[in-house]
Amino acid sequence: MDEVRIAGFRFAGEIVGVKRGSKRDRPDVGVILADQPAVAAGVFTQNKLRAAPVDLSVRRLRRGLCQGLVVNAGNANACTGAQGEADAKEMAALLALGLEPAIDPKLVCVASTGVIGEPLPMELLREGIPRVGRAVSADGFSRFARAILTTDKGPKVAVREVQLDGRTVRLAGCAKGAGMIAPKMATATTLAFVTTDATVEAAWLSDAVRAAADRTFNAVTVDGDTSTNDSLFVLASGAAGGKPLKKDGKRGRVFAEALREVCGELATMLVRDGEGATKVVEVIVEGARTVREAERAARRIAESPLVKTAIHGADPNWGRILCAVGNAGIELRADKLELDIGDVPVVRGGVGVREAETEVAAHAVMKQATYQLRVRLHVGRACASMMTCDFTKEYITINADYRS
Fold first, then answer.
1. Which residue from 85, 112, 180, 258 has the least number of CB within 10 angstroms?
2. How far lies 135's CA from each of 33, 276, 346, in Å?
3. Within a 10 A sphere around the Cβ of 165, how many other Cβ atoms?
4. Dihedral of CA 139/142/143/144: which sign?
């Protein structure tokens, strides 16, 4: 991976010892440090059992500023009670006060990922976090991107450049996640971090981040489980200069689209790297009464274990797909339903296409690594899509052995 640099930021990732077993020799603590307090925004899990670092970061981002981020992999610090809250706060202080010069601990956010319900190994973090903080450098992005991983096959990185008023503005994002991924991040775990040298207004950035998440991270699923720790952070250093980006301007729209592209690329990588996944499928629902109903139908298909196992086996069992639509609790008429697998018409008027070549052609499509399932409801004009992957025996193996 070519080294990524974003003006105004330094990064690090080191081995501290939080990870256990076969992963203990891999980086497990990462740090992002801004040269000055950066404009910042984020969106977080909707799981009612939010982890302590999520609660801490939500509170601190209300100011719209963040100068440091410390992330650990191997322990989620979730369902750990008052001790977990104190540990998350201490992690931030360990980074802030371990720097030379020190920064305000209240300008540090925290993210964690890993096993739920176990206390953090604070004796290791007390030594490790200041050490990682002192190791930050402008060319440390790739080390940070590796330090946040758990069951991922490798780092997930996306970069964009846009021209704003003759200035080159850069965005760089990285993410982790291969399991416990479901489309409910807004308001193993999805963590995503985007840094940019753009100059932005805090309120505008918050809206832009939420909009980007809705169209990207909230439109993918691996196994339907929304984690206790899902978090997306976006930090803007302003080092590129220029007037602050704000609503209702062409410059803002250009940047917002670049942000959406970065988030979209990272979200697609999450699905491709889904635990045990061998196929990525886009589920498209058209002709729904409302967007919400289209989303519900797409999600129901994308998260159905029966559909996902059929995807793995390349079995064009269209009854499973229509069954999922029927379970979505939306307005539909059976006699209007249509389904295409790739470009193969499989269902028309709610009835299977009974042509000899249909089964063979649909099976051939489903053997591909990437394709589309397209459902048409014909009860309205709304549409939505969701990205999903197959369920495999390897998914079971990974999660059965996750804590060992």
1. 85
2. 10, 34, 57
3. 10
4. positive
**397 carries an active-site annotation:** no
Range of weakest confidence among 65-69, 209-213, 387-391: 387-391
Does the structure show a pLDDT above 80 at 335? yes
Q: Which CATH class is domain 280-400?
A: alpha beta
Q: Quick count: other Cβ atoms within 10 Å of Cβ 393? A: 9
305 CB-near residues (< 8 Å, 6+ apart): 391
pLDDT in tens, 156-213: 999 999 999 899 999 999 999 754 444 455 434 689 999 999 999 999 999 999 999 9
Point out the catalytic residue in the list 168, 187, 370, 397: 187
The domains of the chain are located at 9-272, 280-400
Cα(188)–Cα(186) distance, integer angstroms = 17
- Short-list 169, 266, 277, 167, CA closest to 222: 277
Residues 340-388: tens digit of each pLDDT? 999 999 999 999 998 879 999 999 999 999 999 999 999 999 999 988 8
pLDDT at 24 over 80: no
In sequence order, the β-bridge partners of residue 66 are 38
Cβ-based neighbours of 250, under 8 Å, separated by 6 or more: none
Q: What's the CATH fold of domain 9-272?
A: L-amino peptidase D-ALA esterase/amidase (3.60.70)
Q: How does DSSP assign 58-70, residue by residue?
A: HHHGGGTEEEEEE
The model's pLDDT over 286-312, given as tens digits with 9 standing for 90+, comes to 999 999 999 999 999 998 999 999 999
Residues 242, 167: contact at Cβ < 8 Å?
yes
